[in-house]
Amino acid sequence: MDIFQVFIVQPIFNLLIGIYSFIPGRDFGVALIIFTVLIRFAMWPLVKKQLHQTKAMQKMQPELAKIKVETKGNKQLESARMMELYKKHDINPFRSIGILFIQLPIFIALYQVIQVFTLHRDQIDKMTYGFMKFLGPVQDIIAHPEHFNNKMLGFLDLTGRAITSNPFAVNIVLLILAVGAAYTQYVMAKQITPKQPGPKKRLRDILNEASDGKKADQSEMNSVMMGSMTKFLPIMMLFIMISLPGAIALYYTVSNLVAVLQQRHILKEDATEMIEIADEAPTAGLHKKATAKAREKEAQTAQIIRIKARDSSSWKSKKKE
């Protein structure tokens, strides 16, 4: 087995089969739900840290708008002051990618685990840890792989797909599950999307302004792109889910539902705690403000020097004439 199999796929396989072994009736769907909830709560510290940052980003939107007004179109100065603001609130745009880096390997590994349970049951013995083989249900599955119950609540085959190669063979329950995965993805993304002050612009409006010679505002472009991705990703997720085993759609739906509840708890019930974190500005914060003002002064000085240099060049050319 390769590194991914040893460190990601095999642990997930054994955790899942262990949960399955202790569930009365050996229900794979219930085991998968419990597994998903455990994974989401294991990611709680990372989720909480990410949402603290989201709250801080929402809170500083008025300050970003104020910077745009004060810099009067000076993009270099605006970028410098925005970076100072991000440092003040301890915001790192790449921090939110951490959850994706954790979820994606689990998603891929879970698909491989389902493949073992459905198409490669001869590998169950090799994938199972030695100490797990002492469990009676695990021994039964190893000896009789056909005894593995891949259904949820006795009727929903989680190894099947919502839409198969036969266009008339549609599993309504799995299709609803795929739609649920897409919808919960949208709700989860909508929860953490920072609200932009002022009227909302569409991408078409920004492109029209750019064609008229107006320089595009980067923050407006980011906001529009984020809004578009919030709507596009669930649609893409729907098409992915209808083509994968129902167990994946179940995992993703439950994971999103738990994430929505986690985010609601952190963003609303723990709002006071997060505001205190977002407001934390040690004495270094005063230094940062001073630095921002110093940079503003330097930018203005540089602009005056450029104007003087341009005037001097113009004067010399007139003198030669």
Describe the structure.
By secondary structure, this protein is mainly α. The protein has one domain (3-296). Helix content is 73%, strand content 1%. The chain has 14 helices and two strands, in the order H-H-H-H-H-H-H-H-E-E-H-H-H-H-H-H. It has helices spanning 3-22, 28-42, 44-59, 61-71, 75-88, 97-118, 124-127, 136-143, 172-191, 203-211, 218-241, 246-269, 271-279, 283-320; strands at 151-152, 156-157. Helix 2 runs parallel beside helix 12. 23% of the residues are buried. Mean pLDDT is 74; it is low at 281-290, 304-310 and 312-321.
SSE layout and pairing:
Blueprint: H1 3-22, H2 28-42, H3 44-59, H4 61-71, H5 75-88, H6 97-118, H7 124-127, H8 136-143, E1 151-152, E2 156-157, H9 172-191, H10 203-211, H11 218-241, H12 246-269, H13 271-279, H14 283-320
Antiparallel strand pairs: 1-2
- Multimer state: single chain
* Annotation field: number of helices: 14
Distance between the termini: 81 Å
Q: Could you state the order of secondary-structure elements as H and E?
A: HHHHHHHHEEHHHHHH
Task: Name the shape in a single word.
Answer: elongated
The main sheet comes to: 2 strands, antiparallel
Radius of gyration, whole Å: 27 Å
> Which residues form runs of ≥5 with pLDDT under 50?
281-290, 304-310, 312-321
The helix-and-strand class reads mainly alpha
Number of strands: 2
| Helical proportion, percent range | over 70%
Per DSSP, what share of the residues sits in E-state strands of 2 or more residues?
under 5%
Q: In total, how many domains does the architecture comprise?
A: 1
Spatial sequence of strands, sheet with the most strands: 1-2
Mean pLDDT: 74
